[in-house]
Amino acid sequence: MLPHFYYTPEILKYDFGSQHPLRPERLRRAIELISRYDVPILDPGPGSISDLFRVHGEEYVYLVMATSDRLSKGDFSADDAERGHLFSYGFGSGDNPPFAGMYDASLAYCSASAQAAKVVRDGAPLAFGIGGGLHHALKDRASGFCIFDDPAIACHILLEKFERVAYVDIDVHHGDGVQWIFYNDPRVLTCSIHEEGRTLFPGTGGVEETGADFTSFNVPIQARTTGDVWLHAFKETIPKALEAFQPGAVVLQMGTDVHLLDPLAHLRCLQQDWLAAVKIIGDLGLPLVALGGGGYNLMTVPRMWVSGCLTLGGVPFEDELPADLGEQYRMPSYSDHGPAEPSFGKPHADRVIDWLTTQHIPHLRR
Ligand SMILES: [Zn+2]
Fold first, then answer.
1. pTM for the structure as a whole
2. Quick one: pLDDT at residue 151?
3. DSSP letter, residue 213
4. Residue 276 CA, ligand 1 centroid: distance in Å
5. Catalytic residue list contains 20
6. Which of the four CATH numbers 2.30.30.100, 3.40.50.300, 3.40.800.20, 3.10.100.10 does domain 5-46+105-364 have?
7. Which of 22, 42, 49, 102 is nearest to 293 (CA)?
8. What is the arithmetic mean of pLDDT over 86-111?
9. How much of the chain is in helix, strand and coil states, percent to nearest 5?
């Protein structure tokens, strides 16, 4: 049985509109699929504004709340000055259009991630908030489809018990929001493996962004890199950084957009490459909060999240999806099958591995 899996349908209301790539359908499908296994789905409760204040400024939180309420009442009368004010907090661009009910929907995913972190803080070995992982949100600003930064909230909750916490982000985008929130906090090691900023949003995440005490750890990967090389780069860097840092607990952001078929990025991982990385983190045996993240292909996201959760929880599963869902998703199995692509990106990855091994990891010895 998979323990401590927190989810509420309220999270499906986190919806920027029909033209936006972050579609609630990807999460709905993941829940439909995981419900076929022995996974009790637990309601995290209504959520608490005090958990938001662990990370976000009051002015920003109340702005999100007020704008959300106003749009819910059908009031779209913002003048230019108000629109400019919203824009200064990250809202209004194509990425983050404000929507009715956005406060409650954002609080819902934060509530699930916070609840997962609280049970791990209180002694559980593993908990899930698959509707979260919104790693771009900044202290006072929405960014990259993310309004509140639930991974950072989860780290703060774990810090109430553990002296050192590691954040591991395998989303194809740099986990910039979490990095900047903890940039000067040596208690949290933020690790992110991602497509390099030269070719992908948010443009950050170079190896030289080390944080005040070397506790920002970045593994930038060249566009078009294949899954074998991505996994090699992961294995040679992040587990070694964790071993040096000796965290008491881990928050894992399980973005799935490294997949070959993801429409927003340019890496070429297969489900099994990604899953191998998830398993490496699970096998560390540290208390673990597992969150969702990016992923924009409806055929790949649900099966990757579900295989990740079941693997972390030690729940056995066949490689075949339940037949009706496999047909619906046009993907009959968890693993990707087909001819292996020739390796790409290794010289770049090896340079990054070498730099991190010699210039960064030695500073992390605790
Ligand atoms: Zn992403």
1. 0.97
2. 98
3. T
4. 18
5. no
6. 3.40.800.20
7. 22
8. 93
9. 40, 15, 45
